[in-house]
């Protein structure tokens, strides 16, 4: 209180103490104003009605010790920056960036846990390689490089020669032989030939297909087409409209493709225990350093009339990671735009620099909370959006505080701390409401089961609140420092051009009745106010607004779910073109990206209990089904019958299962290892050179059958060393089949079934093959799978139709497994290939649900928050209705733009309410705090005091979002469109629809006020009745019953 008396008693400059000289200029102004206003009626000042409120403690401190306050807050920001730098320098993973993928997984979904179990089935190190002599280095596919060639007709001699030469050029790059997939048909690790139409001319399929000069194109392709086996291969290279006709001598297709395969394990890595991620990274490095430039050149310049497009999983991953960084640089453009716009608005380099610096420091502070306190170890592509979001929201907060500060210059405040307190109360409340509602909208995503979305919601929610705290602590100090030291300062070379701060010919009534020099403020107070309250114009504006709302409501009803796969890049991008060609450009073939259902035995759901909550790459722990066993005869018979049942299904039985029928054989496509074992053993038993007479070795296996089999192969089995209690007879026959009689040459069955079967050592039965020190028999079958091809393509399936098939498969497998013997009772179905399609369908559904949930939560919470903040139910309801109009408009834009409700759209919609709330909240608060009681006066005050802040905040966010439209990553560009539309329509609905409605039916006096309700609740809680009066000697902190009879 001593400092307050000092401020109130100052009347002459020479009365300042040394520590008070900082306030000399400003306080002399306030003292002068105090004497000049003595003749002005208190009731005529819009900023004053009654007793002046006690200045806030924080405002007193900032005014009394401005340099200290500024130093403390600036020092905190610098501390955050240096702490971040030190942590990074010491090797702490402060910013755990992962742009390689988007973890959109529902961790407790059975489809996810099943595929997780299948994909990591060999991680515990117990599973043995099936035939070490025939697997080996680069035997599995690590990546596929697909190259698409397009022309009017690619099947010409010139074009086929060009394709052949380009393949040769790619295969001749340095170290290709170290990364290519090995040819499984021989054991010398030579590179397998590319899958290409050229194979029908280089002798790969026999002497009759040897035409290196491509002189008989029609003849060779017609011969292949007439061969059932080769025709199925040929389809892979033919466009949808291709024509191969020997009668008309026609061979024509507008497109064909080449596929070059890369393999693992690389040299020095083990197939079962080698780090696959590390090997794939090496393959990526090889592709980038040796092939990428050749492919880019062919894509940009073509090849002798051929248009070339290419794709590869590793090259795509490299592009996404590098492109995210490039698109992130667009934030620099947004930053520069906001800086310049803020500089124009504040007309101060000091204010602008501090404000923008505070916004950026909010990001660092948020990351410290997110990474260290909350222990989140993931920062992905979605988090990049928060940079653009905080730039817009942070600038909005700065404008609100700065414009409120300017507005208080036109009110009567006797002391600087009183003026700052008035500004602080209004601005901090307005910013709190917008920050709180925006935070709630973001944090609502924290309950999403997918890490990419939940972590983004938490990070963005924290960021908004940290920015708010910065705006109410650091920026007030900046304002006071500027006011005391820099407000009347200019660069020396511009001082001759400096404008006068305040015209001297204004009357005090004009000055304090809102006469502002800012033309935008004058526009909102004058022309715009009269326009929106005009008796004709306001109804025209209302009708136009309602028409716009009705139109977008209709558009919103036409929105449909996205059935295509998630699209990361623009349609003009090479990789997106390649993806579209892969899905739409070719005839159906056995190599299509169809969904393949696995019916699995031997595994249970993966155990993820030991994984960190944000570790999306954690593989978890394999849980084996110890009851799985195919040695019992009933198990073998039952499984054979199940395979037969699937193969022989009628079209009606197939129904929702959507099993594909082979175009050549006409049979349903089922890959059953037990069928192949049975056929193999039958043929083995018919080998009269080994068995005389022929032996019955067909399934089910038995001790008698397999003893006969092993006795026929003394070079492999020492039957005299086999225990009488030997049990693994089925596995003995299975291993012989899979390893092609241990010949060392991979068979067709090995290539097709090797990955579907896994064995481990059996404590009692496993023994070495007699002629090998590596190979064994009598192992235990740990897992096995039967696969079924469907007609569905993973890139064309939406969740509404897809989940019907998922449930049909779940019911079918559960019903059939329930009929099997106990040793097969643990079977389940899943889709490990093509990105786990079954799980992805559930992710799509969850995203749509989350978007709807986010909108409902945001709007449902907006109503009570706005009602409490404005203390008026009518005002809160009108503001909430305006937010709903913005939301439905943005939803309607989705089908209007030709989009469907997919992953990106769902995520964007979950943020709409949070972004739409700001401007209508500022206007509602401005209407609420007006000292007028009639709607016209309140509306005018609202537009005068808040209009410029709303317009400035919208302009900065709109400008920031424009830069995102230049992004190559489609999600960033689409988010930029969403952000631009959300902010743009928020501005339109706020300044037009909401303003007009307030002018027509805005609450007046105490209409709609909840103050009486608040007072009633407060009185009930404190026990006060209507006869009690305030205590006059308690500092306003108590009450008592009225005094009677002088007591």
TrEMBL record:
<feature type="domain" description="SSD">
    <location>
        <begin position="872"/>
        <end position="1000"/>
    </location>
</feature>
<protein>
    <recommendedName>
        <fullName>SSD domain-containing protein</fullName>
    </recommendedName>
</protein>
<dbReference type="InterPro" id="IPR052081">
    <property type="entry name" value="Dispatched_Hh_regulator"/>
</dbReference>
<dbReference type="InterPro" id="IPR053958">
    <property type="entry name" value="HMGCR/SNAP/NPC1-like_SSD"/>
</dbReference>
<keyword id="KW-1133">Transmembrane helix</keyword>
<feature type="transmembrane region" description="Helical">
    <location>
        <begin position="68"/>
        <end position="88"/>
    </location>
</feature>
<feature type="transmembrane region" description="Helical">
    <location>
        <begin position="350"/>
        <end position="369"/>
    </location>
</feature>
<dbReference type="Pfam" id="PF12349">
    <property type="entry name" value="Sterol-sensing"/>
</dbReference>
<feature type="transmembrane region" description="Helical">
    <location>
        <begin position="947"/>
        <end position="965"/>
    </location>
</feature>
<feature type="region of interest" description="Disordered">
    <location>
        <begin position="1"/>
        <end position="22"/>
    </location>
</feature>
<feature type="transmembrane region" description="Helical">
    <location>
        <begin position="459"/>
        <end position="485"/>
    </location>
</feature>
<keyword id="KW-0812">Transmembrane</keyword>
<feature type="transmembrane region" description="Helical">
    <location>
        <begin position="909"/>
        <end position="927"/>
    </location>
</feature>
<feature type="transmembrane region" description="Helical">
    <location>
        <begin position="376"/>
        <end position="395"/>
    </location>
</feature>
<dbReference type="GO" id="GO:0022857">
    <property type="term" value="F:transmembrane transporter activity"/>
</dbReference>
<feature type="transmembrane region" description="Helical">
    <location>
        <begin position="847"/>
        <end position="867"/>
    </location>
</feature>
<keyword id="KW-0325">Glycoprotein</keyword>
<feature type="domain" description="SSD">
    <location>
        <begin position="388"/>
        <end position="481"/>
    </location>
</feature>
<feature type="transmembrane region" description="Helical">
    <location>
        <begin position="536"/>
        <end position="556"/>
    </location>
</feature>
<feature type="transmembrane region" description="Helical">
    <location>
        <begin position="977"/>
        <end position="1000"/>
    </location>
</feature>
<feature type="transmembrane region" description="Helical">
    <location>
        <begin position="324"/>
        <end position="344"/>
    </location>
</feature>
<keyword id="KW-0472">Membrane</keyword>
<feature type="transmembrane region" description="Helical">
    <location>
        <begin position="873"/>
        <end position="897"/>
    </location>
</feature>
<dbReference type="GO" id="GO:0016020">
    <property type="term" value="C:membrane"/>
</dbReference>
<feature type="transmembrane region" description="Helical">
    <location>
        <begin position="430"/>
        <end position="447"/>
    </location>
</feature>
<dbReference type="InterPro" id="IPR000731">
    <property type="entry name" value="SSD"/>
</dbReference>
<comment type="similarity">
    <text>Belongs to the dispatched family.</text>
</comment>
């Amino acid at each position: 209180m001593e400092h307050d008396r000092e401020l109130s008693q100052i009347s002459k400059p020479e009365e300042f103490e040394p520590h008070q000289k900082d306030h000399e200029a400003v306080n002399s102004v306030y003292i002068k104003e105090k004497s000049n206003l003595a003749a002005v009626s208190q009731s005529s000042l819009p900023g004053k009605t009654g007793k002046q409120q006690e200045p806030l403690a924080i405002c007193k401190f900032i005014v009394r010790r401005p340099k200290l306050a500024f130093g403390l807050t600036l020092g905190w920001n610098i501390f955050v920056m240096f702490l971040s730098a030190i942590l990074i320098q010491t090797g702490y993973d402060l910013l755990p960036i992962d742009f390689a993928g988007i973890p959109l997984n529902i961790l407790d979904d059975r489809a996810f846990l099943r595929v997780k179990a299948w994909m990591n089935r060999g991680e515990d190190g117990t599973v043995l390689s099936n035939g070490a002599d025939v697997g080996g280095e680069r035997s599995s596919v690590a990546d596929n490089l697909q190259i698409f060639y397009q022309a009017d007709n690619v099947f010409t001699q010139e074009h086929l020669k060009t394709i052949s030469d380009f393949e040769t050029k790619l295969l001749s790059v340095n170290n290709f032989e170290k990364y290519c997939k090995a040819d499984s048909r021989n054991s010398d690790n030579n590179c397998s030939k590319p899958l290409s139409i050229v194979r029908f001319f280089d002798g790969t399929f026999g002497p009759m297909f040897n035409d290196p000069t491509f002189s008989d194109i029609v003849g060779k392709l017609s011969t292949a087409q007439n061969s059932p086996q080769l025709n199925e291969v040929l389809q892979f290279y033919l466009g949808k409209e291709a024509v191969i006709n020997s009668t008309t001598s026609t061979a024509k297709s507008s497109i064909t493709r080449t596929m070059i395969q890369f393999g693992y394990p690389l040299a020095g890595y083990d197939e079962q225990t080698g780090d696959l991620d590390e090997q794939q990274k090496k393959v990526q490095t090889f592709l980038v350093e040796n092939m990428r430039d050749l492919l880019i050149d062919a894509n940009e310049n073509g090849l002798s009339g051929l248009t070339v497009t290419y794709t590869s999983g590793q090259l795509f991953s490299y592009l996404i990671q590098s492109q995210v960084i490039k698109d992130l640089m667009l934030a620099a453009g947004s930053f520069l735009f906001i800086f310049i716009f803020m500089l124009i608005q504040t007309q101060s380099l000091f204010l602008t620099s501090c404000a923008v610096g505070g916004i950026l420091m909010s990001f660092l502070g948020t990351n410290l909370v997110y990474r260290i306190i909350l222990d989140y170890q993931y920062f992905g592509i979605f988090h990049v959006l928060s940079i653009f979001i905080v730039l817009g929201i942070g600038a909005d907060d700065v404008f609100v505080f700065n414009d409120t500060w300017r507005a208080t210059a036109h009110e009567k405040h006797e002391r600087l701390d009183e003026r700052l307190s008035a500004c602080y109360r209004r601005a901090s409340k307005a910013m709190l409401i917008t920050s709180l509602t925006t935070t709630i909208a973001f944090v609502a995503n924290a309950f999403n089961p997918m890490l990419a979305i939940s972590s983004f919601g938490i990070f963005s929610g924290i960021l908004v609140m940290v920015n708010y705290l910065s705006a109410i602590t650091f920026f007030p100090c900046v304002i006071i420092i500027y006011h005391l030291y820099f407000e009347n300062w200019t660069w020396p070379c511009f001082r001759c051009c400096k404008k006068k701060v305040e015209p001297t010919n204004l009357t005090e009534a004009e000055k304090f009745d809102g006469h502002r020099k800012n033309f935008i403020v004058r526009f909102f107070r004058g022309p715009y106010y009269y326009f929106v309250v005009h008796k004709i114009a306001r109804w025209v504006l209302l009708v136009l607004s309602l028409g716009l709302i009705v139109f977008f409501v209709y558009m919103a009803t036409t929105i449909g779910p996205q059935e295509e796969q998630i699209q990361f890049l623009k349609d003009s991008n090479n990789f997106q073109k390649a993806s579209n060609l892969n899905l739409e450009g070719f005839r159906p073939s056995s190599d299509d990206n169809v969904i393949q259902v696995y019916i699995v035995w031997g595994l249970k759901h993966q155990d993820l209990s030991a994984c960190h909550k944000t570790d999306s790459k954690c593989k978890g722990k394999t849980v084996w089904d110890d009851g799985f066993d195919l040695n019992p005869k009933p198990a073998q018979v039952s499984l054979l019958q199940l395979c037969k049942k699937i193969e022989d299904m009628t079209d009606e039985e197939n129904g929702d299962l959507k099993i594909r029928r082979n175009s050549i054989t006409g049979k349903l496509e089922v890959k059953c290892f037990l069928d192949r074992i049975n056929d193999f053993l039958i043929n083995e038993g018919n080998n009269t050179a080994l068995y005389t007479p022929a032996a019955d070795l067909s399934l089910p296996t038995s001790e008698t059958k397999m003893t006969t089999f092993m006795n026929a192969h003394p070079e492999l089995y020492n039957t005299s060393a086999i225990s009488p209690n030997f049990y693994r007879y089925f596995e003995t026959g299975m291993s012989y089949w899979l390893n092609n009689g241990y010949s060392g040459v991979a068979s067709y069955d090995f290539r097709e079934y090797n990955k579907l079967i896994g064995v481990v050592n059996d404590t009692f039965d496993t023994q070495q093959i007699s002629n090998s020190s590596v190979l064994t028999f009598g192992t235990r079958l740990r897992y096995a799978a039967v696969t079924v091809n469907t007609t569905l393509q993973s890139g064309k399936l939406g969740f509404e139709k897809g989940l019907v098939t998922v449930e049909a498969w779940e019911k079918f497998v559960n019903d059939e497994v329930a009929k099997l013997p106990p040793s097969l009772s643990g079977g389940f179905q899943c889709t490990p290939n093509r990105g786990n399609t079954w799980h992805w369908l559930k992710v799509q559904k969850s995203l749509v649900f989350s978007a709807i949930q986010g909108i409902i939560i945001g709007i449902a919470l907006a109503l009570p928050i706005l009602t409490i903040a404005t203390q008026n139910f009518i005002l809160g309801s009108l503001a909430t209705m305006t937010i709903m109009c913005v939301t439905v408009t943005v939803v309607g834009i989705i089908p209007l733009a030709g989009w469907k409700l997919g992953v990106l759209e769902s995520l964007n919609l979950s943020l709409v309410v949070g972004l739409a709330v700001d401007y209508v909240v500022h206007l509602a608060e401005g209407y609420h705090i007006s000292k007028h009681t009639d709607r016209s006066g309140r509306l005018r005050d609202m537009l005068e005091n808040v209009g410029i802040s709303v317009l400035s905040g919208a302009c900065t966010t709109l400008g920031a979002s424009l830069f995102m439209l230049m992004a190559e990553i489609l999600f960033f560009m689409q988010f930029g469109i969403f952000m631009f539309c959300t902010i743009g329509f928020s501005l339109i609905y706020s300044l037009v629809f909401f303003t007009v409605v307030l002018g027509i039916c805005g609450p007046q006096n105490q209409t709609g006020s909840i103050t009486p309700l608040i007072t009633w609740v407060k009185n009930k809680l404190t026990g006060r009745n209507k006869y009690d009066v305030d205590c006059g000697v308690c500092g306003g902190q108590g009450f008592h019953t009225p005094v009677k009879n002088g007591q």
